[in-house]
Design a protein that fits this description.
Blueprint: E1 10-14, H1 26-40, E2 44-50, H2 53-59, E3 63-68, E4 77-84, E5 89-95, H3 97-100, H4 118-133, E6 145-149, H5 155-160, E7 168-173, E8 181-182, H6 184-189, E9 203-204, E10 207-209, H7 210-217, E11 220-223, H8 226-231, H9 235-238, H10 242-247, E12 252-254, H11 285-295, E13 304-312, H12 318-330, E14 334-342, H13 344-356, E15 361-365, H14 369-378, E16 381-384, H15 394-400, E17 404-408, H16 411-416, E18 433-435, H17 440-455, H18 458-469, H19 475-491
Parallel strand pairs: 1-2, 1-6, 2-5, 6-7, 7-11, 11-12, 13-14, 13-16, 14-15, 16-17, 17-18
Antiparallel strand pairs: 3-4, 4-5, 8-10, 9-10
Helix pairs in contact: 1-19, 11-14, 12-17
The structure holds adenosine-5'-diphosphate.
């Protein structure tokens, strides 16, 4: 059944970050593009975000459309309305200046440490979402469904579960490793309904877990790739939630993220030196020489340029790239560029390696969206050795930009990159190099496989990269998939796991 033929849904999409307003990772890419894709399918979708200074600045002009009195918060909370993206999707910003008007990142201060009042900040955000969801903000808009994302919105499905005439709720896990766990005193401080302090509720090993509100109470739980949806049912990637998730398996789906094909298009990307597409692939190398010049590497279009972009955390396996550095340095034809920020120890080691091998390695510490585009456009190979990866976006950008991905077979990486074996190379299915064990030796063997392949006559490499460029990871089919799940959630709501205690 085509969901497009059904009555348009009213969808409130709640996220703690959204591109282009504020971004720390993949959640922002999704929140900045899925609602637009849903609007494109004719749905009445509205996005709600905290009013961080960057969001207020980027979303101007804004008007105040509601004032809320929320439990435990001194003073009124303003709801500001603006528009998001070319689709002009309505955007609500929850303006509680004492909690959100701060410099830096949505979750951490300048020292990289979590804001000490994150529980209060996102509990208030959840309260505002609930008010909007129940049409209690005076906006005369009653959503059919609230789509919550990650732990910062986890209390919403739990609080809605006790309401009559509630909208349906969907909770999407973008990364189960981030759970929003706080101590019992925080539960008391937030004055949450006492019924929620139970094993069927928000309690998780004597702590309050925000994410559990989404996992236990949402009508449907989704995550961002089919493989990760299976992996989180196991003890190695379930983080203690595998039992609960197995219990909810009939209402758990993996829907692969799409990418924004307008923002990430090598044929029109304003950030890159030379536009190209699959049919003009040979032009891509001009982006390599431009980047070599920009980053102070020797300009050589025949160098094999490897790239990596990401948060510098253990999950992403940057330490494995460090392990293969001696091998790369031994191969004179290679260069490496890394863009990232995160763990200060990793930043330091990377900078030290750059200082040791300035002719071979470029390291940029920081967050730089335009440079990320130029690296994707310039590389021959993009290395993504994540130990786990719910979906991963950079391998999708790499495929689109003809930068052949080298990835660990996990989560969304396993679902989106097809390993180049001698058998499938010529039939047009191979798109990259995939390895099974996240250790330095296996990564190095895979890089060698890529380098050997690269030495074959140029047409082979070009074919491999072009196969990748021809893949379709646009949002269209994923947005349709979400719509199907929305309808199922509305037609067949889940029962409140605390109903017997309520
Ligand atoms: P995660 O959400 O775990 O960080 P994803 O691969 O899903 O990983 O998404 C990461 C997003 O953030 C991508 O769009 C990537 O390009 C971007 N990104 C990460 N680090 C940086 C950085 N230092 N500079 C620019 N973009 C970055």
């Amino acid at each position: 059944m085509s969901t497009q033929s059904q009555k348009p849904l009213k969808i409130l999409f709640a996220s703690s970050e959204a591109q282009p307003l504020i971004k720390t990772g993949g959640l922002a890419d999704v929140a900045g593009s899925l609602p637009l894709a849903l609007a494109h399918l004719g749905q009445d979708v509205r996005v709600v975000l905290p009013a961080y200074p960057q969001a207020v600045e980027g979303a101007k002009p804004l008007t105040t459309v509601a004032m809320l009195n929320l439990r435990g918060h001194q003073g009124e909370v303003r709801i500001l309305e603006g528009r998001l993206g070319e689709e002009r999707v309505p955007l609500y910003l929850v303006d509680a200046p004492a909690l959100f008007n701060r410099p830096g990142n949505p979750y951490t201060g300048a020292d990289g440490k979590d804001w000490p009042d994150n529980a209060q900040r996102f509990a208030l955000f959840c309260q505002a979402i609930v008010a909007l969801a129940l049409n209690r903000a005076g906006l005369s808009w009653h959503p059919d469904l609230v789509h919550c994302n990650d732990w910062q919105t986890g209390l919403v499905p739990a609080q809605l579960a006790f309401e009559d005439n509630r909208p349906a709720s969907i909770f999407t896990i973008h990364n189960l490793a981030y759970q929003g766990n706080f101590n019992r005193a925080t539960f008391d401080l937030l004055a949450l309904d006492r019924k929620l302090w139970s094993h069927q509720g928000l309690e998780f090993h004597n702590n309050l877990s925000f994410i559990k509100g989404g996992l236990a109470f949402a009508d449907w739980v989704t995550t961002v790739s089919p493989t990760y949806a299976k992996e989180i049912l196991t003890s190695s990637l379930g983080y203690g939630f595998e039992g609960l998730l197995r219990h909810r398996e009939d209402r758990l789906r993996g829907v692969l993220n799409g990418i924004d094909y307008q923002a990430w298009d090598p044929a029109s990307d304003p950030a890159i030196a030379q536009h190209f597409d699959a049919s003009t692939f040979s032009l891509k190398r001009r982006n390599k020489t431009a980047l070599q010049q920009e980053l102070g590497l020797p300009v050589d279009e025949n160098a094999v340029l490897f790239g990596h972009i990401g948060r510098l955390v253990a999950q992403k396996g940057v330490d494995l790239i460090l392990q293969v550095l001696p091998g790369l340095i031994d191969r004179p034809e290679t260069q490496l560029v890394i863009l990232g920020s995160g763990d200060p120890a990793l930043e330091k080691v990377l900078n030290a390696q750059r200082d040791l091998h300035p002719q071979r390695i470029a390291v940029v510490i920081g967050y730089n969206e335009a440079l990320a585009h130029r690296i994707e456009a310039a590389c021959d190979c993009f290395i993504m050795p994540s130990r786990f990866e719910p979906c991963g976006l950079n391998q999708l950008y790499s495929l689109r930009y003809g930068s052949v991905p080298i990835v660990h077979r996990t989560g969304g990486l396993a679902d989106t990159v097809v390993d180049a074996s001698p058998r499938n190379l010529l039939d047009g299915t191979a798109t990259g190099f995939v390895f099974d064990h996240p250790d330095g030796n296996t990564l190095w063997r895979t890089i060698q496989r890529a380098l050997d392949f690269r030495r074959r006559p140029g047409v082979y490499w070009e074919k491999l990269a072009q196969h990748g460029m021809q893949q379709d990871f646009s949002w269209d089919s994923s947005a349709e998939h979400y719509l199907e799940i929305y309808h199922q959630a509305i037609d067949n709501p889940a029962s409140n796991p605390l109903a017997k205690l309520a």
